[in-house]
Design goal:
Ferritin, 7 helices, 83% helix
Length: 151
């Protein structure tokens, strides 16, 4: 099946972004001691994993294997960051930035793709990402307020 080069490029970019985002959420969960934050991060990682597989299926439908698309180089910053470094940053804000990037990719795909079934997938993903963005903003404010009160 032929597909527009821009759509193909954005789908590949989205697949890799979901993979990176899942790893980021898992690393964030590992550094959390508050159970509600830990559950949130783990739940978001599961959602990103599901989104990854739905985009992987779309790529398979157009004749592209996910293994050929996934960036093979590990992100050393993601795998080698220490607990001390992680605790210094607002993990909710970090995840929020990545979710915002993903949202932009999805919005572009909704605009340029003309296949109804794919557009429905993008819109479902947009809804989930938008919910995550709201939650990350809310948690980020909560964390920053507590940090401010503790200083």
């Amino acid at each position: 099946m032929r597909i527009d080069k821009n759509i193909h490029f954005l789908l590949e970019k989205l697949l890799n972004s979901y993979r990176e985002n899942k790893i980021l959420y898992l690393n964030s969960a590992d550094s959390q001691y508050k159970p509600s934050f830990n559950r949130f991060f783990n739940h978001q990682a599961i959602i990103r994993n599901n989104m990854f597989f739905s985009i992987s299926n779309i790529l398979s439908e157009i004749g592209v294997e996910a293994e050929d698309v996934i960036l093979k180089r590990p992100d050393i910053k993601q795998f080698m960051s220490t607990k001390i470094e992680r605790e210094k940053e607002d993990l909710f804000y970090k995840n929020l930035k990545k979710d915002t990037e993903i949202k932009e990719i999805l919005l572009k795909l909704v605009k340029i793709d003309n296949k109804k079934n794919r557009i429905e997938v993008y819109k479902k993903h947009l809804n989930k990402i938008s919910e995550s963005i709201k939650a990350n903003k809310s948690y980020s404010v909560e964390v920053n307020e507590k940090m401010f009160l503790n200083t």
